[in-house]
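The following block was generated as part of the benchmark described in Methods. Ligand: 2'-O-acetyl adenosine-5-diphosphoribose.
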Amino acid sequence: MNEEAIEHCSPVLRQAQHLVVFTGAGVSAESGIPTFRDALTGLWALHDPMDLATPAAFERDPALVWGWYESRRLQLQGKEPNPAHHALANLASQVPRLTLITQNVDDLHERAGSTGVIHLHGDLQSPRCSVCAAPYAAAAELDLATTAQADGGRMTPPHCSQCNSPIRPGVVWFGESLPEHALQSAFEAAGRCDLLLSVGTSGVVQPAALIPDVAAQQGAYVIHINPEPNHGQYPEATHIQGRAGQILPELVARAFG
Ligand code: OAD
């Protein structure tokens, strides 16, 4: 089945003029980073997002929220890009134009060599002031000081050097708008591409989940890579069932090898 789907999709990839790749937590799963909604191991299966990922949660208990994101940021430093990230980085030199849009807050695409990555949901490495939005320049210095305490536990956030308000994680929370420039660039690319490859996303968080639809409506070919069978969110798309770290290198090798 996969064989058939890969065989079918490889010429489509080879001929693409503008490829948009849209990734979710599943692309980093094989690097040992938990997804959000996988049963048992997903972050939102273990924690209530309303306690950790909303502006109200941060106001209510900044130490809980900051500590949780710091533990994720520190955990990320021990992880490496997997074959899916590397295959996507290699693709950039094979297709005339590639736009990589991610919902992920990790930096594994960049560490694999991808450039110009559009981070729709922000990123763990860019904490900023919760009031004046000034970037928190001392992020790197946090590491040594906080490793011992950041084990998923509470941690008082540092304060902004400009206005003395608490520093917050650089991610988008539920109820917040997406970064405007990223959102605009992502939807523009989706509206202009001829192939959209969606990798490792449940496709349930808006407005990001609209991106494959926008591409399809403009006539682009849409391919989904996911170990789960096609869940029906995107009925018009081709579905390749399997792990990104296995399917992507195979698809790229078949298209360009
Ligand atoms: P989800 O956890 O909702 O979905 C992850 C998807 O990856 C599921 O469909 C899995 O089947 C699939 N998956 C698991 N392992 C995989 C593998 N090895 N290869 C390929 N796919 C695999 O994560 P997202 O769709 O990214 O928002 O979630 C969207 C947003 O919800 C996140 O960006 C986050 C969360 O709340 C913010 O942080 C703002």
